Amino acid sequence: MNTASPITALKGVGEKTAALFHRVGVDTVGELLSYYPRTYDLYEKPVTFANLEMERIQAVTGRIGRMPDTKKAGRLAVTTVTLEEFGAYLHLNWFNMPFLRNTLRPGNTYIFRGKVQKKKGRMVMEQPEIYETDAYERLLDTMQPVYGLTAGLSNKTVTKAVRQALDELNLDPEYLPDRIRRDQELAEYNFALRSIHFPVRKEDLLLARKRLVFDEFFLFILALRRLREQTEMEKNECVIRPDAQTERLLASLPYALTGAQQRVWEEIQSDMAGETVMNRLIQGDVGSGKTVIAVLALAAAAECGYQGALMAPTEVLARQHAQSVEEMFQNCGVKAEIVLLTGSMTAKEKREAYGKIESGEAAIVVGTHALIQEKVRFFRLGLVVTDEQHRFGVRQRETLADKGLHPHVLVMSATPIPRTLAIIIYGDLDISVIDEMPKGRLPIKNCVVDESWRPNAYRFLEKEVAAGRQVYIICPMVEENPELEIENVVDYTKKLRGSLNPSIVIEYLHGKMKAAQKNEIMERFAAGEIQVLVSTTVIEVGVNVPNATVMMVENAERFGLAQLHQLRGRVGRGKHQSYCIFISGSDSKDTKKRLEILNKSNDGFYIASEDLKLRGPGDLFGIRQSGSLEFKIGDIFTDAKVLQAASEEAAKLQKLDPGLALPEHHGLQKKLLEYQNEGMGRMSL
Ligand code: ADP
Ligand code: MG
How many other C-beta atoms can be found within 10 angstroms of the C-beta atom of residue 220? Predict the structure, then answer.
């Protein structure tokens, strides 16, 4: 067995489990080892009811008084036990586990462990783990890994597989040169790998994490630097100069470009007409108007006889983009065939689209990333634009180069990273920043309230709907139990229908719905046929319905600030005053402080930096910034110092031994090649 072995090489992992692992992106033993825990469970001493803290995972000791109750609630069977201690009550709920009636014996004492919440004035623990007292004793004070899961894949299964892999694999020898390890005070690689999964002490975990974060950044930057050397030389074979048609499009817009948009558009024009191929990143906060820049570039490419591809992270967004491009083109009489390519299209529709792209009939292709990358053969591809979340990098560029294509590349991102970091991370790209919002926008009005305010919020929604506006409501996802997520959204919608004026059309949207269903809902919402859309965070990125003026987020405390900012970006896109209501289910001080940042500011950069201050670099496993930069373990904000160090070491190394030819660099050379072949981690390069 080696790191490249399929995961089925592990005992107890058959085809069925392998398929589940595949869903979380793990196919090989090596990928399993770098499937780092999401967090760790610390098994602390049980506490008395009086000392329970809300919203924290804790353990209690409890004696079962009588046989547990099981009741139906919708599609769920809820089993409940009520514990009593010195006159205080704690209610335990389990979903769809009726067999517990046979497990939990009246008269016996168990340890229950879970998050304690206040619900309707009662203390509740949902889905607590159950331990015999002596079993818990053995776990006491240990740190157990908690992995990201999917329905059917249990934490126990992942833990066992990782343990086996670590035990049986001949791990890679240390590959970092001694000098770097000494200067940066980095732990040994195999120690780090073991300790990140099964830390014996908190200090080991910190050391392990630092080492692995360093490696992740270091390899990424080294690979990037190599890439930069190659791409900078790449000659521009698709000279694109916008002409009358693009000018017409610009003139037909219902608004003038902002100064920042104008500047970025000029940079793009000079890139596309320049000596070398364009590789540019456009950074701009949500709502700063990136789409129109992409459309202008695509129009210019089409005008010069080149095909353009616009790639979006979700199907909903791809459809919406195709529609806006079409509208903008129609408004000014530009004739260019736009072809949509998404996963939910039938095989026949896809074939038809492929045909048009290959023959050159299609001037612009809009689709989700995978579809455009894989099978498509272009006739004369001149420009690739990727919107939100995904970088376009080594892999894709190589795939295209293999087909003889060297298009211009434009990457658009709303992730607010400071310029100094951006230069390190996007070392292979030139950077443009749209640092100005379109004029005439009314700033979004925010409020952070607790659950008791919900009825007022509902009355407010009704008023907005009566005025012709539309509303988003975000239900939190239930991370511990993906199945519950659907129940959650469906239940919420049902209740909402009972609470709001019955003439209001309310629909829901969640990640597990079929693409065609999602599209239908989104289209009806965009057309104004649905007034209130209850959704999980699937609508987080890019969705543009300017008539929507209220974003209400339930359990706002469960989301990262960057994510909340993205969600808020769905409103305030038109001429009407917009509102964002954050409902917080927690009255902890930290939560209040965090949400207060959003309350005060609508500026993504400010929010990111304040969030960082609050979390601080010591915050190991706080909620991550979501966005385009998904490193496996490093966080460009909280690990900014390590990122800087990795960048400096990479620069030094390249001066010292650019080909990594010295004997002490052979291990690194090999590792770097592996890393590049694996597509540079999960960075979708
Ligand atoms: P994002 O940068 O988040 O992708 P969009 O490109 O979706 O933002 O733009 C948000 C909204 O702003 C859209 O409705 C768009 O039509 C509008 N918009 C873009 N540029 C301008 C501008 N210069 N003036 C007024 N409105 C604009
Ligand atoms: Mg956008």
Answer: 24
Across the chain, what does the average pLDDT equal?
Answer: 87
Neighbours of ion ligand 2 (CB under 5 A): 542
Checking if the pLDDT of 337 tops 60, the result is: yes
* 545 Cα–ligand 2 center, Å: 12
Burial of 234 (0-12, 13-18, 19+ CB in 10 A): middle
Q: Write out pLDDT tens, residues 542-565.
A: 678 999 999 999 988 888 787 888
Q: Give, for ligand 1, the residue of 544, 549, 602 to mutate: max count of ligand atoms closer than 8 Å to Cβ.
A: 544
| Average pLDDT of the segment spanning 617-627 | 40
Two tokens, residue 435? 């640092």
- Would you say the CB of residue 284 lies under 6 angstroms from ligand 1? yes
Q: How many CB atoms lie within 10 A of CB 403?
A: 12
pLDDT score of 162 more than 90 = yes
What the block records as the tokens of 670 is 């090999």
CA angle 245-251-254, nearest 5°?
130
- Residue 320 Cα, ligand 1 centroid: separation in angstroms? 13
Task: Give the dihedral sign, CA 151/153/159/165.
Answer: negative
At residue 236, the 3 state secondary structure works out as coil
Hey, what are 388's tokens?
A: 């939100």
Residue 680 has pLDDT above 60, yes or no: no
Which residue puts its alpha carbon closest to atom 16 of ligand 1? 289
Supply the pTM of this predicted model: 0.71
Pairwise CA distance, residues 443 & 464, whole Å: 17
For residue 333 the two structure tokens come to: 């009489």
Cβ(325)–Cβ(338) below 8 Å:
yes
> Please, is 303 exposed, middle or buried when counting C-beta atoms within 10 Å of its C-beta (0-12, 13-18, 19+)?
buried
d(Cα 499, Cα 629) in Å, to the nearest integer?
40
* Section 533-538 average pLDDT: 86
